[in-house]
């Protein structure tokens, strides 16, 4: 499988443009939920944008996080477990606009599970938006899901493009790096490069 490396500043710039698109569409969130850990960097940037554009008479955007993970149950079905919310959906109020952010929509299970929980707490779908950096369309198991991103920086139709590269976000990812990749993508800081290479040696 090929691997694509996305520098942190590209993600930052794309996040600002994405936030501007959301704002221009007239959607101003009251609560931003980031899915940890992937959505944290993208969500931080988008949250900063809405801090800047929010009028003084509007209440501040509430920034929160949720920890969710996929697992396989005893019937070998893929499920999503939510380990915790820093702001429980139980506290959401009628009329709240909610923005859910993750780095990638791949299987789509995590985003769909989180939105389903928010819907169960009385927030209608039109008041919930989903934003991701990368939106991957796969086979029917992914395409037939009820919730898809409302906003994204890049869309990949695997069936059409045929390129299913592993996307490595340099804003936060280290797992999966090889020594060759460290040397190729972290050349500007020899001290950091040595730290990363030493870490990889300890793992082998």
Automatic annotation (TrEMBL):
One Pfam family cited in the UniProt record for this chain: Pribosyltran
Domain Phosphoribosyltransferase, residue spans: 17-136
Cited InterPro entries: PRTase-like (IPR029057), PRTase_dom (IPR000836)
Molecular function GO labels: glycosyltransferase activity
Transmembrane segments: none
Keywords: Glycosyltransferase, Transferase
Protein's recorded name: Putative phosphoribosyltransferase
